[in-house]
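Inverse folding, one chain.
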């Protein structure tokens, strides 16, 4: 194996577009994944069979694979959970660009993010991390979730009474990597996401988008994502951007994509509760970003930002409206059509009504 190399933490179907982008940019790619990698095999120079949840072992495997004479430029990771910490550890030891360890730890643990953001003066949901199925002394309803989740929203539940707390706790604890459970007082409102592409600590492009998330029968569910957010272009977006700059700076985030999720209450209060480095899931990288910025390739941009290559300019700088909905192959490009589509989905009408109230609380005008 010769030439410049990047390391990919993970080599499954989710990582394949990023690995392909790196190979198309001229890099040799070393993939670390304990499973077979049929989706990415064609673009891998080498596949190391090792768990992405074992940080120290992955470091040793990467050092052996990339010995003398091999120039490693960056560590790529399109991952969540412990694999993010592994990516940060490999980048740290090898002295190359990748996710910072501080960002990785805040991404892995909901309680760490909550505590760090609060210490920086950024609003967060009122919460506590617990180890036992005893109802916490917090105002109800509660959002009960794994402190260190592996599978997103699967075991996130809304609990309204103390009797329902123990089963929600056990479901969350069973998934949590550290066996701890994050409990937060529920905030009535909507979710917005903020994503930024960074180069040398500066934002190259960013986007505020809506996450059509809700609780259905007490369980968290996602109906899709859309951008630009109904709340974009005003004071709330400025506050989200300022909070992101504070957090990214504190974590030493300098290159590549980074995402935050905020809960916006009915008066426009903004509360951060999730952080993700790299190109996250939920169809954001695969479908939403190329739709709102036609001609923009987020995977190629991620590789360029992390390896120091020139970022290809996008032919469109102002995002066009686009929504990607669960169960629909074609994106929605019209706000009125989006309203009709959401209204036909379980819980969608309630989400639309809440967003209208939030817009009123923020001082936004009616939907276009």
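Residues assigned per position:
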């Amino acid at each position: 194996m010769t030439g410049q190399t990047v390391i990919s933490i993970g080599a499954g179907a989710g990582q394949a577009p990023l690995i392909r982008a790196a190979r198309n940019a001229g890099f040799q790619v070393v993939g670390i994944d304990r499973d077979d990698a049929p989706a990415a095999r064609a673009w891998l120079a080498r596949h190391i069979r090792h768990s992405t949840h074992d940080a120290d072992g992955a470091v040793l495997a990467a050092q052996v694979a990339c010995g003398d004479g091999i120039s490693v430029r960056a560590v790529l990771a399109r991952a969540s959970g412990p694999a993010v910490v592994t990516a940060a550890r490999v980048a740290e030891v090898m002295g190359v660009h990748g996710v910072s360890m501080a960002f990785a730890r805040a991404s892995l643990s909901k309680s760490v993010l909550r505590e760090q953001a609060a210490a920086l003066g950024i609003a967060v949901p009122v919460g506590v991390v617990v180890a036992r199925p005893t109802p916490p002394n917090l105002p109800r309803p509660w959002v009960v979730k794994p402190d260190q989740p592996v599978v997103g929203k699967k075991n996130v539940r809304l609990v309204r009474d103390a009797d329902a707390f123990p089963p929600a706790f056990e479901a969350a604890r069973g998934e949590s990597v550290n066996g701890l459970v994050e409990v937060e007082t529920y905030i009535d409102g909507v979710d917005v996401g903020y994503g930024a592409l960074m180069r040398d600590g500066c934002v190259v492009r960013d986007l505020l988008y809506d996450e059509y998330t809700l609780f259905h029968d007490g369980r968290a569910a996602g109906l899709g994502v859309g951008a630009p957010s109904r709340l974009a272009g005003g004071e709330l977006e400025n506050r989200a951007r300022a909070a992101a700059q504070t957090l990214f700076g504190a974590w030493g985030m300098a290159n590549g994509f980074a995402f935050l999720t905020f809960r916006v209450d009915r008066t426009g209060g903004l509360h951060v509760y999730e952080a993700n480095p790299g190109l996250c899931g939920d169809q954001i990288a695969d479908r939403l970003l190329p739709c709102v910025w036609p001609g923009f390739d987020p995977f190629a941009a991620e590789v360029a930002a992390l390896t120091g290559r020139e970022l290809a300019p996008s032919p469109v700088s102002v995002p066009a409206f686009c929504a990607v909905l669960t169960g629909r192959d074609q994106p929605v490009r019209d706000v009125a059509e989006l309203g009709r589509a959401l209204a036909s989905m379980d819980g969608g009408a309630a989400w639309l009504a809440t967003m209208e109230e939030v817009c009123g609380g923020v001082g936004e005008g009616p939907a276009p």
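Residues 235-251 form the longest helix (17 residues). The two ends are 55 Å apart (CA to CA).
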